[in-house]
Design brief:
With 128 residues, this protein is mostly helical. The protein is built from 4 helices and no strands. Helices cover 83% and strands 0% of the residues. The longest helix has 37 residues. It is elongated. The model has no long low-confidence stretch (mean pLDDT 93).
């Protein structure tokens, strides 16, 4: 599959990833703190990391990635890395981490991402 070139295509792919990540978080939270869900949680965290890297790359290419946006991503990933070792053997901590990530993700998607995506779209329109 070729990587999209136009912002509209990139945005559509990023939004699709947002939807998948949100659904994954909802599924894991609904499943509670079961140890059997640990592999799915680790997979979701990996997908989140990849998504954030791709988003940063594309927003940077569009000239719309501000330092605060990048810092927000780094803070989330740092928090996950810090909390993850304790979460591996404690279901309640795992559930709390997932709910914290879900809250951050929702606020980030409808705040910083929405603003940056609108800027990228406007920038592309100006270039046409």
């Amino acid at each position: 599959m070729a990587m999209p070139r136009a912002w509209e295509q990139k945005e559509a792919l990023l939004e699709q990833q947002h939807n998948q990540l949100e659904q994954g978080l909802e599924d894991l939270i609904a499943g509670g703190s079961e140890p059997s869900h640990l592999p799915q949680m680790m997979h979701l965290i990996q997908k989140l990391k990849l998504h954030l890297r791709l988003e940063e790359r594309w927003l940077s290419e569009a000239g719309c990635l501000c330092q605060g946006h990048r810092l927000s991503h780094q803070e989330l990933l740092g928090s996950i890395e810090q909390q993850l070792p304790q979460c591996l053997n404690h279901g309640d901590l795992r559930l709390n981490l997932l709910m914290d990530v879900q809250q951050w993700f929702y606020q980030h998607r409808h705040g910083a991402d929405a603003i940056a995506y609108a800027r990228a779209k406007a920038t592309q329109l100006v270039k046409q």
